[in-house]
Every structure is written in structure tokens, then in C-alpha cells.
Amino acid sequence: MMAEERGSRGRKETSGLLMSVIRALSSSSSLEQREKEKQRVEKEFRESDRRLDNLVAENYEDLTSIIKAFSTISDRVQASRDRIAKVKDNLLSCKNLLHCKRDELRKLWIEGVEQRTVVEMMERIENIKEVPEKLNGYMEKKHYLHAAELITNAVSLLEGDLVEVEGLRDLKVDLISKKKHLFEVIVDELHTQIYVKTTEAKFNRQGSGRRDKKDGGGIQRALVGKLSSGGQNELQVPSSRQEPHLVVEELDVDPEEDQPHFIGVLVESLAILKRLSTAVEVIRHRMKPELLGLIHRAAQQIVEIASQQGENVLNQHQPRHLLELLELVIKQFRSVAHTHQLVLQHLKRTTTSASPDEPDITLYGIVEVWGKIQEALQIFLGDYLDMRNTAATQQQTASSFEEHTDIASYFARRRTAKPKKAPLFRFEASSHAISMHSYFEEQKQDFYGPVEAMPSSPTRGAPYKQTFVCKPTANNITENYEDLTSIIKAFSTISDRVQASRDRIAKVKDNLLSCKNLLHCKRDELRKLWIEGVEQRTVVEMMERIENIKEVPEKLNGYMEKKHYLHAAELITNAVSLLEGDLVEVEGLRDLKVDLISKKKHLFEVIVDELHTQIYVKTTEAKFNRQGSGRRDKKDGGGIQRALVGKLSSGGQNELQVPSSRQEPHLVVEELDVDPEEDQPHFIGVLVESLAILKRLSTAVEVIRHKMKPELLGLIHRAAQQIVEIASQQGENVLNQHQPRHLLELLELVIKQFRSVAHTHQLVLQHLKRTTTSASPDEPDITLYGIVEVWGKIQEALQIFLGDYLDMRNTAATQQQTASSFEEHTDIASYFARRRTAKPKKAPLFRFEASSHAISMHSYFEEQKQDFYGPVEAMPSSPTRGAPYKQTFVCKPTANNITAIYNPLQQFIQEIEAATGCQAGASPLQSFITEFVKKTFLGQVHYNIMSDIATATKGTEGKGFDAMRFVTDQKTQKELNVPKPLLQSTVAVYSCIQDLHHLMQDLPDYGDQFLDLIGKILKDYKDTCQMAYIDIVQPDSEDNRIISAMWAKDEDISRLLRSLPNWLYLQNEKELKPVDLHFSEADMRAMNSKESEILTGNLSSSETTIPLHEIISDSSQLRTLGNLHESLEWFSNKMKEFVHNLPASPRVAVGKGCQFSKETMQSLLTLAQDFQELADMCLLVLHLEVRVHCFYYIIPVAKSSNYSGALDDMDPDANVLKLNKDLTGIEEAMSQSLQPRKFMYIFDGLGHLIATLLISSAQFLTRINENGIKKMCRNIFAMQQNLSNITSSREVDLDRARQYYELLHLSLEEILTSIVEQGPQFSELEYTHIFSLRQRSRPGSDPKVFKGKLDKLKEVLREHHV
């Protein structure tokens, strides 16, 4: 906006300037005034040119990139158009081809249909063949529902599509018989569930069974109490309003565990078999026999228990057994009735859900069940009360029960009856008695039913035959008198009430008929009165409505103040609809109508704003508390990151509870006496319901969709402001300090808020779906937004947020050149090559910042910016949510901020992908992060790493690798915990690798790229170090090489030196191996002799001296070699440690983590070993270089000096002094660059080598006298003293050299005598050289005598095995 205002202001100033110039030129006539105007115009034009130049210079890169992007986009659009035209042409040609071959395609389609039909029929036949086996499996496990469906489908298929298949006729007959058998099994199982399974728990005998007769009254009272309780603990049966649910049979569950469900399965199976009517008839027909069989089984159980207790129930009169039997039978009958009620419920559900074309089924009722129970009880009581006088045929017939006889008279005291006389005759076997017995049997069958109707299932026993638990007698009624009396009274009362109700209903019916006749006579008068009443009632109602409408504004304000928006919406909607409907003609309400319509619009805006407040403010305000104390120091960033990852992984357990997709929200009811904001989910439902009442849901959805992105950006802004305020209170300036932990805290807070916002949106969507599905059909369809769209807006907001913090528009580094692509193979050694001095660029002659083209390009950039970041006016302007979005930074924007937030981002991206259901890595936010890392961050890392390495390793002009002269200071040395200084380049490279290692931990998904870069850096740095080493050991040309380097490269010398104990001691000490390497003095002398022998054999045989260019005369170069050795050895150890820790180093935070191949790790170990080899080579070169220096200075001592002068020279030889000075310089350089053990390795054995050189130099002396002997001894002493100062030990080997030259003081005979007496101290060759030197020093001696002395020397030495 500021840029647009500035551009428009500039255009206005330019146009105003031109108009003023025109007016001045037209009004002025003097040349002076016109000249002034001209100067002013030129000045303004120069100012415009200057501004134009500045703007072009500032935006040159942007202009270039935009022009390139525009060109690329234009090419892509053109290519897309060409491809679309090509596709269109292909489609047209395809259409023509299809049209031409239409008949062939139709024929092929028909053949395909026929083949598919045949295949389907074959599959059906294969499936039908498996039906008998599956049916047997289902029936064994009592899965009757699956069995019924299977056999029904199979039979219908055999009677339908497969009816013509001849091979399936036998199978069809078999399946039809199995279907009939399945019906019989299901019906029998249903009776088992009703009469056996339901009552088997009741067969436990009630009480102890040992009660005496006195306890009968208590048992009777208990029985009456249990009967009155109605069976509270019986089988739970659904009420008449609560229908049973649809029956579903699970194959992995025992079907008999849940008996009500199993009964439903049986009924459903009968319905599938379409045999419900037959099953109902069987149930009705077998009901009475089953009940009698139940009584029989109960009596048998009581008789068995009594027999176990030693009682004979038939010979003893024990009415208590009858009482227990009655109690047990009543409980069983109650359970049977309840089970029948459950069966009837399932039958009703099945019949009501049946198809209309099925025949109607006449069900039995629960009244019929209770009737059958009463019939069974009548038979049971008739047997026990001896109603047929089988036990007392001689008693007189009792008077009828209907006569007015006092029942108490039966229990009154009677006089003792006189004993009757025995009859003289009995007629049991007479013809009359036999005929009477047959008559009684026929009457019994007519009254009790035929015997063959009894159940004969083995589960329920044989046909009914009464098993008595006591003697049948009429006196049994006395035991149950009180119970029977209460039951008779209750039945009489109920009967009287039913009769009274019938009389009242008949009376009401008569009154209604008479009222109907009267109303028919006065119909016209009543119609007139009714119309007048309706008119008056309508007027009264209209007046009440008008009065209520006048009170609407006041009530509406009250509701809105208390945020009762549902009542407010209903109130104003009803009021407006009334004003636009019945009261539309009332002139006095027009102003009120306009006011209410405006208030309705205002209410809609308030509700929408309140809904946004609930989504983006109330839901997230608890999250604005900063995680943790807020007083952490700067070192606590890692702890915050770990806490963030842990909290993010918890998945937000304390978030807003949202109903699942299957669990719809309940209907919303608003209570006026409750604060609506206490229950946020309910309040959101109230807001959505209010919008539905206002019929503005579609508009509200569009507003929510439009304001979603600005609200999310405002949420980020508020979170950043809070973190900045907290940091300011702690005295931190977040913009002047690079503190990614603040960004991590901000991201943690924003992610938790976004998660809460998404959960709240999900709740809003649930309410919106409920409201739209329950809306009337005449309302227009509403296109809702989805949760995927919400997550999409969240990702867009995060992209803007991350784009600012990751410096994607280069606001913090506009002057940096674009780094090369990360995939490009750039040679790191190129950074260390010499470059020419860059020439200063010329200033541009013209600038175009204020030109029309530049202004139009600037406008284009602003439009693109608005398209990407959203319009400014769309931002929320509510005082609750602050001003329009403007990024408040909590740290400096830089691309490196991705390292602190990558892992939490990846975890949140996974959560987004799981919520949206997209594939892993396919979300826009993941694409955004991936594109940034690959195209920007990795290139910047590559550029920064290479720049740091180039800064640390670039050398100055001149020969040699100057960067190797720069070592670390004491502070860095102490931080690295190293005893000697290291090369700055090595430390810089290691620091870069450490940075890459940290990046591998922070960005584990790109570990392979970072590891490849590390390998590339190591290879390039190895080449650089190799070049530095070559520059030292091969300074000029390939022909001029350093002798020590040649020896170190020689395989024999290198193998020998690496096998010597002093080298092994170094390696063991370096690897911390506890190896005991103690050597005797003889072993050390042998080791030194071996080394001296091979080195002397390479040089001392030459008669020429060593040239100066074949040694490293500059001690600083030697110090550089020492620094290079220490640095590379330390670097190699660090690299090995890095590689060994590599598999466990990247933490598996999100995604797949880092998995490195063995080949990659082996290549890194090889590079580390290469560095170690180069370090060892440097140490060997130093070791050999010191010895080459001794050759260089000691060989001329014998060849160039005079030892036969007349004057006694008191000073040592000049070359000896130079050697001492050179060794002192080397000592100073090595002590600064090498560790003590390596320093000792370089100078260890040097005395023995010098002694060997001095002794072997005797062959090069022409002659020597006494003064020369003294001079040679002084040379030896000077070198011994210097070496002792260096090694801090007496060099005994130089004493041997001095003793060798002191032999010249003796004659040949004396030398031979000393050998014989003391033994040989030197070799035969050394004795031969000293004999020859003595012979040369004394001219005129007889050669034969000298030869004889040599022969004698050989004999003496041979005797001593030398």
C-alpha cells in the first residue's frame, strides 16, 4: 500500500510539475523567468534520473528473475496449449475410429457379456455344491441364521436361474429336505429356549427342604410376596415401545451366551425360511403339553430331593412339598410367559418388516399364553385337590361353592365321628364299576386334552403323567388358604372394576349419540356462532401479536447482551416473518419492520463474528500461555525442542471433544438461566442453529471460508506478539539476537492452536451437517466446506509464516549471489586456486527507477504479492483479534531457522496427512518444505560451507601452501583439548563437518545429501592436503625431489621403519593398546644399527655430497609438516569417531529417518584412513629428514676438511657447527608442532646414525695426524653435547665413535693386542678402515708388513667370531 501511494504520489508530482511548467512558460514573457523554469525542470529531471537509477539497481535481481519467470511461464502455457490441441485431435480421431468400428465393438461387447454370464453361473454352481458342507458346520455350531440364509438362497437359486441344470436336480431335492429338517430343528430349539433353558435355573429347590409344618405360613407369605413382586429378576423383555434391534449373528461368538439375542436369531431364521405361520401354529399347539411337562419335571426333582433325605412323599402327608412345587412352578411359568413375550416382540418386528406380498400371519397373544398356563394349573390343582374323589369315594358330595356357605365352618371343630362299619360288599370289579371307570377316563380326556399331544422330546421327558409330591386330598387347600383367599379377592376386585369401566363407556357412547342429534338440529346457528368466535379470536390473536412484536427490540437486546443467540434468532425470525405475512398490511408496523430487518442483518453479523471468536480466540486462548517457565537461559533450547516433540506426539489429548462421524450432535436447546459460554461445544451448536433459523447458513459458510486464512494469520501474529513481550520482559531483544528457540516455541504454540482450530472446525461441520440434513426439502442446497479445506488453509498460513522466517524473499541477504545448485559437483580445490584481482565495475550511465515500465513492473509485483499472501482488506479487524496481519518476528529471518523447526513440522505434516487422508509426502506444506530445502536451503548450505572452507584455506601469493602456516591460537587449542596447535584449515573443515552433522540430526530426511557433501569435502580436502604435502617435498619440478620423501615412499624403507619398535610404540600409544614394549639396550642398539645400515647404504656409498635442493633447509617447512601431521592425525581420529557414531547419530523424530548404506560408511572410513596415512607419511618424512641433514653435513666433514695440519685447530669443523645449529632449529620447530613422544621418535637413534657416519667417514680421510685426531674428537664431543641437550640423555653411541678415532693414537700391534685382550669393539671393515688410514698417515711403511698386519687382524677377528 505504501508503495502504491508512493507511486501515485510520484505520478501526481510529475503531472503537477509539467502543468506548472506549462503555465509558467505560457504566462511569462521574459527570458530570465523562462531560464529559471528551465533550470528547475532540469534539476527535477536529474533527481528523477537519480531515483530511477537507484530503483533499478535495488531491484535488478528481482527484475531479472521475474522476466525469466515470466518467459518460463509463457513457454509452459504455450506448450500446454499445444499439448491440449494435440489431445483434442487425438480424441477426435479416436471418436471417428470408434464410430467406424461400432458393429465390431458391439459384437465383442455381447460376447464379453455372454462369457461373463457363463463364468458367474459356474461360480454359482461351485458355491452351491459347497452348501451341504457349510450347512452342517453352521448347524453344529447352532448358527441358524447363517444356515437359513445359506439354504434359502441356494434353493431359490436352484429354482430360479439354475432350474434348467440337470446335474443339480439331486442336489436340489437334498437341499429341500435339509431345509425342512432345518425348520424342525429351529422350532425344537425355540421350544427348548422357552421351556428348558429359561427355567433350568429355577429347578434348584427353594430353601432347605427340612421345614416342619409350622413353617408353612411363612412360606406362604414369602410366596405371596414373590408373586406380587412381578419377577424383577426375570428375563429382560423390551417394552411395547422399545422394539428389538435388527438381529446380527456373529460367527466367532457362542450363540447361546446371549439368550434374548439367540431367540431373535431363531425367529429371524424362521422368517428367512418363510415358515413363520407354521411355526406359530406349532408353538400354539405344543404350548399346553410343554407346560404340563414342565410341571412334571419340577415334581420329579422335588421327589428326588425328598428321596435323598429319606422321605416317602406318597406315604406321608407333607403339604410343604406341594408348596415348594407350587412356588417353583409359578416362577417357571412366569419365566416362560416372559420368554413368550420376547418371542412375540421378535415376531411382531419380523411381520411388520416383511414385504407386502407375503401373506398375513396370525400371531398368538400373551393372553393366550396366560390362558394355557391357567389350564395347566387347573389340571395340576385338580390332581392335588382330589377333585375326582379318587382318594375318598365314600364322602358325601360337598355343597356347591356358589351357595352362601361360611368357609370358616370347614375349619371349625367337629365332634369325633363314630367309626363306620365296614361294608359288606365291594363292587370295584362289577360291570357297573368298570363302565363308570371308562366313563371317567373319557371325561378326563375331554377335559385335559389328548395324551398324544404331550411333548415327546428327550430333553423334556415322556408324555405327561402326574408325579405326586404328597397325597392328593382336599385338605391341601388348608395349607394355601390365605394365598387363595387373597388371589380370589384380587380377581374379584379387578373383575368389578372392568365391569364398571364397561358401564361408563356405554353411558358415554349414549351421551355422544344424543349430543350428535342435538347438534344436527341447530347446525346453522352453531356455524354462525363459530364463525363469530373465530373472527374474534383472530382479532385478539392479531392484537396480541402486535403487542408482542412491539416488545421484540427490547427482548432482542436482552438476549444479545446475554449471548442467548438462539432465542434472539427465533424471536426476530418469527417477528419478521409475521410482519411480512399476516401483518404485512398493517401500516403502523412498517418502520418497525425496517428496524427489525436491519437488526436481523446485524444479528447475523454478530453471530458470525462470535462463531469466529469461538473458533480462533476462545479455543486457543488457553494455548497462549507460554510452555514452561519462560526464564530459561539460552542453553535450554534443546530441552524446549525435546519438550515440544513430546507434546506434539501426545496428539492433543486435552483438546475439544468432537463427535465422531457416526455420532451426530444432539438437538440444540438453549437454557436462559445458564451462561452459554460455559459449554463451548454446545455454544457452537447454538450459533450454528441460530444461523440456520436466520436462513443464512450458505452466507455464513462463505464468510467462514473467506475469513479462514486471515484469521489463521492473525492467530500467528498474536502468538508472536506474546512471545516477543515475554522475551522483552526478560531483557532480550529478539530481533538483534539469533535465537531459534523463540521460533521453536512460537511454532509449538501455533501448531497446538491450529490443532485446536481444526478440532473446533470439525465440531462446526458436525453441527452444519446436522442442520442441513434436518432442513426442509424446499430450502436450497448448501455447499459446506470440509475439514480438508481447513487443513489446506492451515498449510497456506504456515507457508506464509515459514516464508517470512526462512527468508524466502531474501530480505536479509539481498546482496548475496545465488548459490550453485546443491547437486552440482563443484571442486572444493578451486576455492584455493589463485584468482586475479577483480576489476571495479563501472557505474551505469542511465537508471530507470521512475520510468513507466518500472512503475508498471512494481505494480505487477504488488499484485503478485497480494495473490500469494492474500488481500490486506480480508484480514480480521475485530478488536479481539487485533489489526490486519503484519508479521512480528521473534528471531532474525534466515534460512537456517529450518533446522530448529524441521522435526516438529514433519510430525505436524504427518498429522495433517492422516487427517486429510492424502498420501505421505503429498500435502502442499510438505511440498513447500521439500522445495525450500532442496532448492534454497541445501544450496545455501553448500555455498556457506564452501565459503567458510575457502576463507580458512586460501593462501597468499607466492609459492607453497601458505594456509598451512596458520595454526590455531591457545584458546582454540584449549577448547579442542589438544596438546599441540592444529592447522586452522583443518579445524575449519572439521567445524563445517560438525555443522553438517548437526544438520543431519536436524533434517534427518536429507541425511544422505549431507553425507554426500561430507564425503565430497573430505575428498577435496584430502587432495588439498596432498597438494600441500607435494609443495613441500617437491618444491620446484618433478626431477628435483626431497630425499626424505623418496625414502618415505620407498616400500622397503617404509616397511622397515614401520616394523621397528619405536614406530610400533607410537602406534600402540596412539590406539591406547595396553602392550608392554620394553626393549633392552642391546635391542635398541640393534634397531638403530639396522636403520643406520639401510640409510647409510643408500647414501654414504656415493662419493658426491648431497645437493642443497634435496633437503628441506627451511625449518618453517618442517614445522608445517609437523602441524600437518598433528592436524591430519587428529582429523582422522575425529572422522573415524564420526563414522562409528553415524548410524545412531540421527535421531528418528519423524518420517523414515536416516539409513546409511555400508558402502557409504566404508568410503568415509577409507577417507579417514587416507588422512591417517598422509599424517604417518609426514611423520616419516620428518624422521628421515633429520637423518638426511646429518648426511648432508657429516659427509663433507671427512671429504672436505684437513686433519693433517701442522697447527692444532681448537674449534670444531665448520660443518659440525652448521649441523648443530640446524639440529637446534629443527628441535625448536618440532617442539612447537609435535607431541613429546613424536618428538622423541624423530631424534631417537640419531646419535647412533651420526656415530656410524663418522666411523664410515674414516675411509674418506686422506691422512690424519695427532692434531687431526684431536679435532675429530672435538667434533664428536660438540655433536654429543648438542644431541644430549636435545634428547636430554647421554648419547653413548658417540662415545663409540670417539673411541674409534682414538685407536689412531695406538700402533697396529697395540690395536691387535687390545682386540685380543678386550675383545673386538668394531667390525672387520671398520678395523680395516682404521688400519688403512693409519697406513696412509705414515708414508714410507712397508706394504708387506701392513698386509701381514691385516691378515693377522682377520685371524684375530675370526677367532672372536667377528
UniProtKB/TrEMBL annotation:
<dbReference type="InterPro" id="IPR007191">
    <property type="entry name" value="Sec8_exocyst_N"/>
</dbReference>
<dbReference type="GO" id="GO:0006904">
    <property type="term" value="P:vesicle docking involved in exocytosis"/>
</dbReference>
<keyword id="KW-0813">Transport</keyword>
<feature type="coiled-coil region">
    <location>
        <begin position="31"/>
        <end position="58"/>
    </location>
</feature>
<protein>
    <recommendedName>
        <fullName>Exocyst complex component Sec8</fullName>
    </recommendedName>
</protein>
<dbReference type="GO" id="GO:0045202">
    <property type="term" value="C:synapse"/>
</dbReference>
<dbReference type="InterPro" id="IPR048630">
    <property type="entry name" value="Sec8_M"/>
</dbReference>
<dbReference type="GO" id="GO:0006612">
    <property type="term" value="P:protein targeting to membrane"/>
</dbReference>
<feature type="domain" description="Exocyst complex component Sec8 middle helical bundle">
    <location>
        <begin position="676"/>
        <end position="853"/>
    </location>
</feature>
<dbReference type="GO" id="GO:0090522">
    <property type="term" value="P:vesicle tethering involved in exocytosis"/>
</dbReference>
<dbReference type="GO" id="GO:0007268">
    <property type="term" value="P:chemical synaptic transmission"/>
</dbReference>
<dbReference type="Pfam" id="PF04048">
    <property type="entry name" value="Sec8_N"/>
</dbReference>
<dbReference type="GO" id="GO:0000145">
    <property type="term" value="C:exocyst"/>
</dbReference>
<dbReference type="GO" id="GO:0006893">
    <property type="term" value="P:Golgi to plasma membrane transport"/>
</dbReference>
<dbReference type="InterPro" id="IPR039682">
    <property type="entry name" value="Sec8/EXOC4"/>
</dbReference>
<keyword id="KW-0653">Protein transport</keyword>
<feature type="domain" description="Exocyst complex component Sec8 N-terminal">
    <location>
        <begin position="31"/>
        <end position="136"/>
    </location>
</feature>
<feature type="domain" description="Exocyst complex component Sec8 N-terminal">
    <location>
        <begin position="477"/>
        <end position="557"/>
    </location>
</feature>
<feature type="domain" description="Exocyst complex component Sec8 middle helical bundle">
    <location>
        <begin position="255"/>
        <end position="432"/>
    </location>
</feature>
<keyword id="KW-0268">Exocytosis</keyword>
<comment type="function">
    <text>Component of the exocyst complex involved in the docking of exocytic vesicles with fusion sites on the plasma membrane.</text>
</comment>
<dbReference type="GO" id="GO:0015031">
    <property type="term" value="P:protein transport"/>
</dbReference>
<comment type="similarity">
    <text>Belongs to the SEC8 family.</text>
</comment>
<keyword id="KW-0175">Coiled coil</keyword>
<dbReference type="Pfam" id="PF20652">
    <property type="entry name" value="Sec8_C"/>
</dbReference>
<dbReference type="GO" id="GO:0032584">
    <property type="term" value="C:growth cone membrane"/>
</dbReference>
